[in-house]
Design a protein that fits this description.
Bound molecules: S-adenosylmethionine
Radius of gyration: 22 Å
Largest sheet: 7 strands, mixed
CATH class of the largest domain: Alpha Beta
Shape: globular
Number of domains: 2
Number of strands: 12
Helix content: 25-40%
Number of helices: 10
Structural class: alpha/beta
Oligomer: single chain
CATH topology of the largest domain: Rossmann fold
CATH architecture of the largest domain: 3-Layer(aba) Sandwich
Order of helices and strands: EEHHHHHEHEHEHEEHEEHEEE
Length: about 300
């Protein structure tokens, strides 16, 4: 049998993207191209990612970087990492740097992820805010919106007079791709699996599609959340004071000095007695910080 030989990187024709193209009937996206990534190139990418996004790529992540960079290179029709790094350096607009950071970030998230935090917000945070009928929460590293929308749904569920409250959720991320998805507020069936049935019926509109169905978040929830692109390593335009900051499953990608600086910046933006929530696989142990420990993954100013 003759094995068909096909180019790993077909040259893009005008008006098409690599995603549109097929090779022997197989969509390009399903073919893993064999790009070579030398140790020095991995180090350059790791340095750039650390400088620009605070993300520390540990040794052993070479395959992951290779696979993710290949995706971006395929979109551009670039065949070698060397040519890609050259392209990156020549692009003075910052667009390609943002695109590279975008593909290298890990965006895993889900609705009501780490349920203990939502119990904590319901039982411990909301009652204390009754005095002023207001809450400002910040989902720092919000990915595709499941986290801030979960907070907004919780607020709507727990506060019968929510429309009288000044309730605002700021949701930020460095990745434009996930923010675009968050702003659209449309999720597939798998993504809404973790949403309790009653909430799914109340806060999502089911829309039939060729593939099955998708779920559109309601205006009442969407209207409470404001999305913005923000690099946590850069300057922050907002001026506190937050009641709660959720920075969950974000700092795991940062090294210790970066985490320490970030945690101190969160302190500055929190109200007295405001809470910082981190992921349950994270903790502030070993960091020099001014917070008091409340329970696993919860800290108070
Ligand atoms: C694993 S997701 C966590 C999402 C959500 N917080 C959760 O726990 O489900 C981490 C998110 O942090 C974002 N991120 C990583 N570095 C960042 C930075 N320097 N500034 C802002 N966001 C960043 C990534 O783009 C990604 O969407």
């Amino acid at each position: 049998m003759t094995v068909p030989v096909f180019p790993v990187f077909p040259v893009l024709t005008a008006g098409t993207t690599a995603q549109d193209q097929e090779v022997c009937g197989i969509p390009m996206t399903t073919i893993t191209p064999a790009v070579d990534l030398s140790e020095a190139q991995f180090t350059s990418v790791a340095q750039l990612l650390h400088e620009r996004a605070g993300i520390a790529l540990r040794p052993g992540k070479e395959q992951l970087v290779k696979a993710r960079l290949s995706r971006r290179m395929r979109e551009l029709g670039i065949r070698s990492v060397e040519a890609y790094l050259d392209y990156l350096e020549r692009d003075k607009t910052g667009h390609e740097m943002a695109a590279m950071i975008d593909v290298l970030t890990t965006n895993k998230t889900s609705f009501f992820r780490e349920q203990e935090h939502f119990e904590f917000l319901k039982d411990r945070v909301l009652p204390s805010l009754r005095r002023r009928d207001g809450i400002r929460a910040w989902s720092a590293g919000c990915s595709s919106g499941e986290e801030p929308f979960s907070v907004a749904m919780l607020l709507r569920e727990e506060l019968s007079d929510i429309d009288r409250w000044d309730a605002r959720v700021l949701a930020t991320d460095i990745s434009s791709t996930v923010l675009e998805k968050a702003r659209a507020g449309v999720y597939d069936t798998r993504a809404v699996e973790g949403v309790p049935d009653a909430l799914r019926r109340k806060y999502f509109a089911r829309v039939r599609t060729d593939e099955g169905a998708e779920y559109r978040i309601s205006e009442s929830v969407r209207g409470m959340v404001r999305f913005a692109r923000l690099n946590l390593m850069g300057s922050w335009p907002m001026r506190g004071a937050f009641d709660v900051i959720l920075c969950r499953n974000v700092m795991i990608y940062f090294d210790r000095p970066t985490r320490e600086t970030l945690v101190r910046r969160y302190w500055e933006l929190l109200r007295p007695e405001g809470h910082l929530l981190v992921g349950h696989s994270e903790s502030l142990n070993g960091l020099d910080h001014p917070f008091s420990y409340v329970q696993p993954a919860v800290y108070v100013k």
